[in-house]
Amino acid sequence: MRLLILPFYVKLACVLLSILLIGYLAVLGHTILAPLIFGFLCAILLLPLANFLERKFKLSRALSSLLSSITLLIIIASVFTVLGTQLSSLAKDWPAFKQQVLISTSDLQLWISQTFHVNNQAQIDYINEAASKSLSTGTTILSKTLISLSSLFLLLLFSFLYTFFILYHRRLIVKFLVNSFKEKHSAIVYDIVHHIQYIVKRYIVGLFLQMVIVTIMACSAFYFIGVKYSFLLGLITGIFNIIPYIGIFTALLLTILITFATSSATHVLFVIIAIIVIHAIDGNYIMPKIVGSKVQINTLIALIGLVLGEMLWGITGMFLSIPVIAIIKVVFDRVPELKPWGMLLGEDTAPTLLKQDVLIITDDDTRGKDSLQ
Fold it and tell me: Which residue in 166, 196, 298, 336 has the fewest CB atoms around it within 10 Å?
């Protein structure tokens, strides 16, 4: 059988066309694919629990899958309940919040008037003009917020259903994947499936540990600083820190706003310093040791994945981008034709000597031997 060798520009065109088609299908199938991928990740995380229930308590596959899915749902609901309880306590202080904003606004107006010589009436006119412009978009913002909340509810609902059915039909899915390729590739397919399970499970567990550690550090720091809602702000910092690079800045903004409304400017300064120190510790010690060791993806690819994920699926895409890239890398590393792409996604663990470097080293060694002789 004669192999067809395509020119480079034809291969490049096929790759670019495939990327565009995959991106277009991802946009069209957002409603189905996002909860499906999230359910797939949850199913891999719950797989040891489901197997334990089947072996230890002799439960049926359907019952063990259902109990495992309900366990995850209870954990997620508990986190949202704690967060909602803290937010409700913050809502009780809404009058004090408004009073603090009014006092801070008056101080800011006085500082602007003394520094830039802009009278208070001109500042009030400017604020009223900006408020009238933003009022026209208030309905749109409210509708988008309601749509986002309903989308989150649907995402959780369908993710729960997908998690249950993936756990229930897990052996059928593996058989389908194995039988989709030739028999000589069965060992490679089983190796890919096993490694994907290992990588995803370790990544999610590491992410959870990172969230717990960052939450404890943030709660402790805010408590010693004297912030009123230290537990709430620490929980927000830990949860938002799950989203790489962008989450910590979002948590910083929310923390500054709440601290500014309930405390003094000195507390705001200390909170900023505390979050910067926590982020430095997380980025240099916690993330590489707990999460980074499980998923070997270089920073450039991770950042590109976050941007593309946000463009395609919003916040959901940002959260799912890293594990999806990790799964793709596992496949690329085990397919000979795709190994260069796997190297591109991974980290540069050891420097590779180029041909000219080897020649230079050889020449230097030869000169050294000649001089010794």
Answer: 336
